[in-house]
Amino acid sequence: MSIRRLSVLLAAPVVLSACAAGPDYRPASSTDLGVPDRYSVASDQGRREDLTRWWERFDDPLLSQLVAETATTNLDVAQAVIRLRQARESLVQTRSSLFPSISASGGYSRNANLRGGNAPVTLPDGTVTNISRGTGDNFSLGADASYQADVFGGVRRSIEASRANEEAAGFDYATVLIAQQAEIARNYVLARLAQAQLANARSSLALQEDNREIAGFRVQAGLVSSLDEESARAQRAQTAATIPNIEANYNSAVSRLAVLTGRAPGALKDVMAATRPIPAANAPIGVGIPADTLRQRPDVLAAERSLAAATAQIGVARAQLYPSLSISGSINSNATAFRDLADVITGRLFAGIAQTIFDGGRLRSQVRSQEAAAEGALISYRGTILAALEDVENAIVALGAAQRRAQEFAVALDASRNSAILSRSQYRAGLTDITTLNQTEASLLSANNGLVQAQADQASALVQLFTALGGAWDAGAIPSGDTRDAPRITGSFPAVAPIDQNPQER
Question: Could you report the per-residue pLDDT of 10-63, keeping only the tens digit for each?
């Protein structure tokens, strides 16, 4: 084969590969996706909130430490890093199809005869001849190369799909990260809520114990019947019965908090034992417009990248409908002495074209299947967008409702506290009955619990809103995908930074 013909043969795939099979992906605009210009609920949409380290807005050092270390301690995040690593290795494997496959081989053999002289040998045609006996060396070197030309862009579409999947894995990592950060913050709020409820119950229990003693004195003095003492005793027992359930809720929240930070369930009980207020952040939150949220939400970005990958897979399937061009070659050399290997070199070059003639419609069915998959990815993308907007609006409404409830419960608590003081004084003076006193004490406990519950709901709604707006993540901070970026397991539990035992002193 002449040099000119070989050059034309090798250049043909490059020219033909200028066009790739299948549709080119183009991201849809917000208008095409039906994204509204504004949220339908009242909110500050004139500015976009900076969500960087949103947990510091609660001014709780221990909460900030637990949330900030999520990326290095949470095991779900570690799994996301592993999946990201797999996606990046898959991209490397796909890219390798662009290059030829080259292998080399070498050999050495030695023929030895322990007896000298000539030996008669009968050839296949019956002729008898003498062959000299002796010792000889044989060296061989060879190289083989094969290349599947990407004539119709199937490989490049595969690379496009793998790259989109790798980007989607990065966004999935960010989705897991902000979800785990939010879960840690919510459980921290639940733990502080349980502490506040325990304090309310124990405070009310102490007052009701005093009421029972007062009722007992009045019974002994003959001022009232034993009905007052039994009623006071029953009220106290009902309040005491709520404490074990609250303690169980507290233990559950603290244990879950430890597991979320990669620790044993009881690892945080000592540092959480000191009662702290429920985290609060009352600054107004600028939510921006829906398009801002979609650009920040990693789950929406991951769905968009999955759609891009599904679109590229259509091209991969369509490329199978067209002929494939393969080029292979080999170089070999044999000699009886190593220094003579370069004296005689033989080579072979082969080019072949293959085309499927009949397959029962399998290849075209694969194209239609990939087209359906792309349509499904588009529907999933739109569904993720709608869910994201729903999350934001629900969080805005939940935050507003919690704020209004907290305001009303503050009024109710003030009134209940005054009523309880008056009722206690009047009962001691014999101006009211035990039923009225029990009712005012129950109202005081209910108002106290209602206020702390509203405060906890407000904090949880803030966490929900920060998460719905996209959380705090940075595309530049997505790990490389190497397992060295993941939490390392030592013994039964991962090694993590120690918790500050006195966060209130910071």
Answer: 444 444 444 678 899 998 888 888 899 999 988 888 888 888 899 999 999 999
Rounded CA-CA distance 451/189 in Å is 14
pTM for this one? 0.83
CA distance 184 to 191: 11
Beta strands 136-149 and 101-111 are: antiparallel
Distance of alpha carbon 319 from alpha carbon 327, whole angstroms: 18
The amino acid sitting at 493 is F
Say if CB 367 and CB 310 are below 8 A apart: no
pLDDT in tens, 49-95: 888 899 999 999 999 999 999 989 999 999 999 999 999 999 999 99
Calpha distance 171→478 (Å, rounded): 8
Angle between helical axes of 154-220 and 298-319 (0-180°, round to 10)? 150
Both tokens assigned to 32: 């095409």
Phi/psi for 109 (5° steps) reads -140, 155
The two three-digit tokens of residue 298, written as one number: 């990693």
Structure tokens at 356: 């499927």
Distance CA 169, CA 306 (A): 9
The pLDDT of residue 120 is 61
Buried b (16+ CB within 10 A) or exposed e, 27-62: eeeeeebebeeebeeebebeebbebeebbebbebbb
Residues 6+ apart with CB under 8 A from 177: 70, 71, 74, 77, 80, 471, 473
Closest by CA to 184, choosing from 104, 259, 81, 285, is 259
Q: How many CA atoms lie within 13 A of 90 on its CB side?
A: 18
Using CB atoms within 10 A of its CB, is residue 75 exposed (0-12), middle (13-18) or buried (19+)? middle
Q: Is 71 helix (H, G, I), strand (E, B) or coil?
A: helix
3-state secondary structure of 139: strand
